[in-house]
Structure formats: C-alpha cells, structure tokens
Amino acid sequence: MRATVMFGAGDVRIENVPDARLIKPTDAVITVTRACICGSDLWPYKAMEPSEKGRVMGHEAIGIVESVGSDVRNVKTGDLVVMPFAFSDGTCVFCHEGLHTSCVHGGFFGTIEVAGAQAEAVRIPQADGTLFALPVGKDDALMPSLLTLSDVMGTGHHAALAARVGPGKSVAVVGDGAVGLCGVIAARRLGAEQIIILGRHPDRIALAREFGATDVVSERGDEAVERVRELTGGFGVHSVLECVGAEQAMLTAISIARPGGAVGRVGVPQNEMMPASLPAFYHNITVSGGPAPVRAYIEELLPDVLEGRIEPGRVFDRVVGLDEVPDGYRAMNERESIKVMVKP
Ligand SMILES: [Zn+2]
After folding, report:
1. pLDDT > 90: what percent of the chain?
2. Which of 154, 144, 135 is nearest to 313 (CA)?
3. Average pLDDT score, the chain
4. How far is the CA of 214 from the centre of ligand 1 (A)?
5. Ligand 1 center to 111 CA (angstroms)
6. DSSP string spanning 47-67?
7. What is the tens place of the pLDDT at every residue in 6-57?
8. For position 331, what pLDDT does the model report?
9. CB hemisphere CA count around 33 (13 angstroms)
10. Which residues pair with 61 in a beta bridge?
11. pLDDT tens column, 97-110
C-alpha cells in the first residue's frame, strides 16, 4: 500500500510500504477515506533527524473497517469510524477517568512504533476502545467537521476545559492554527463572554471572528500582553488556551492570565523548561493541559457537529490526494494553508 513516510526534516515521500494488517486479536484495519496533516507534524518536519527507515506519518483519520481481530466486539467490517490520535482500550483506570491518552495499553499513531494514517490503510490497536462508529455515510457533507473529532476539535475543547472556560469568562487563545481556531469554537460553546484571539494571519483571524472571537490582538511579546490587559480592564483574562507549544507562546500565555486564572496548554512543548514560573507562582495561575483525550470528547461534541451548531471542518482550506501530501506539508509549514485534508 502507499503511505506518507518522513525520513528527516523537510523530507516527506509517498512510498510503497507493507500493507496494514491485523497483528493482535484486539486490532482492526481501516481503509482510510479521510486523513489530514497536523500542526504537530510540522515539528518533526522542521527538526527530525535523518532516518533510513523513516516514520509513517498521520494521526487523524476517518475510515471504513476492513477487518477486525477475533477479540473485537464493538466495531465490525464496513463501519465508518473516526480514529482519535491516540489508541486506548477504553477499560483501564485512566480510560474510566476520561484520560484515554494515559491508557495503560495505549499509545499514539504516527510514531516510530505505530504506523500513521496518511496512508491507504492503517492498523488500529485496541480497536474496541479506540474507534467510534459514525452514523453517516462516507461522503457525508459533514466529513470535514467529523474529521476534526480525531484531534483538533477535541484538542481545542481540552484546552478550554483545562483553562476552566465557563459562562461569562474572559478567554484568550494563543495561536491561530487549526487547534487555536477550534479553541475559539470550544470557548464560545462553553459560554465565554469575551474571546481574544492572538494571531496575525488575515484569513485565520477572519475565521476566528466567525467562530466567535470578540477581539483580535496581532501584536507579539510584551506589546501583546499590554494589549490584552487593555482589553480586560488591566487584569488579564480568566482563561488562556495555549495552542502553540513554543516558549514565547507559553510566556505570553502566563503573562496574560489574570491572578487566579488558568492556562490550558495543548501545544506540544518544544522545551523541557517551562517559562514564567515566577509570575505563574505569584499570581496563583493554574497551568494545566497535555495531550487531549479526544476519544472521551467525541460523544459530547458529535451532536453539535451533526446538528450544525459548530463547524470546525472550516479549518480545512486545502484538499489533496496522497501524492500531493509532501506539498501539503510544505504549504502548512509556510503558513500558506491552515490545515490540509488528505483523500487517499
Ligand atoms: Zn485504557
């Protein structure tokens, strides 16, 4: 089968690889009908050490179940399913607590160990706990929004929960990528009164406004902090969604939280050390977040997608076939595209 393989920074190729197949009785194999490129795929795209074997990329997909192992009960051949970016058994202590990304039998797609979904097919470990069958046909008009349930919409929602967004709260979203934009949707959905997007790309800002952003801050660094304070009576916001992961983004996030506020971070940190530890301490700011247990959020978010109350699929501004995936990486890396959908 054909799959997207990253061999090093800037080196993404479409290769013939061994077919995805059942290895364990708890596995399923799905034929991928939709996948996408994630902002987090751009970190290895910028920095991956050269590798001869490479890494089959992709951790977001919708597909049709092609085969299931002998222990799989909850999904069957022919089901249309969404695949969260982490697999999980759905039965362990952490899955029961809604933290599927810490599943004791879990892991992540698109890693060195588990092949990814920017491919014709993908093996799904722990299929019963991982996959969620969708009540629509494979070419339903809602497909882009449904696809975001595999990562970015669930991740934006997780950032909002970690940042304790609620009715009447003031919120800032650091980052105007797909996750940040979904964070705006999530903040509005949870009742935030003021939603400030920090970003500067005109297309993204326009979409953020349509999703519910009330204010835009295009400055950076200290000027951005100053501007957010001006917009919030001098104090900063109750809730900050940090959707980038770079050191400067985290520094800004903590600096714009008001005393007693919370930062929910979902951008993969690019540094071991967390900046702004002193202001976070002196202002009693809660810093929370991590890899979003998106599997836990599908039940809650799905009705809003199906009934059109939220349209996170609008973050996709380009659709490519498998052959054009390398150019999709380039386009996202150069911020020419917000998020690229792949139809293998
Ligand atoms: Zn588990």
Report:
1. 96
2. 144
3. 97
4. 38
5. 19
6. HPPP-SS-EE----EEEEEEE
7. 999 999 999 999 999 999 999 999 999 999 999 999 999 999 999 999 999 9
8. 97
9. 20
10. 35, 83
11. 999 999 999 999 99
CA of 107 to the centre of ligand 1 (A): 10
270 pLDDT more than 90: no
CB atoms within 10 A of CB 117: 32
218 in Cβ contact with 202 (< 8 Å):
no
Residue 27 Cα, ligand 1 centroid: separation in angstroms? Answer: 15
Instruction: Answer for the pair 340, 332: CB distance below 8 angstroms, yes or no.
Output: yes
CA–centroid distance, residue 331 to ligand 1 (Å): 36
Q: Does residue 13 sit in helix, strand or coil?
A: strand
| Å from CA of 220 to ligand 1 middle | 40
Tokens of 210: 């349509």
Q: What average pLDDT does the segment 247-263 reach?
A: 97
Q: What's the 250 CA to ligand 1 centre distance in angstroms?
A: 30
Say how far apart CA 296 and CA 85 lie, in whole Å: 12
Q: Three-state SS for 252?
A: helix
**SS3 category, 73:** coil
Residue 33 · residue 78 · CB < 8 Å: no
- What's the one-letter identity of residue 117? A
Cα–Cα separations (whole angstroms), residue 27 to 12, 69, 88, 210: 27, 5, 11, 40
Give the Å distance between the CA of 83 and the centre of ligand 1: 15
Q: Which residue has the tokens 């882009």?
A: 144
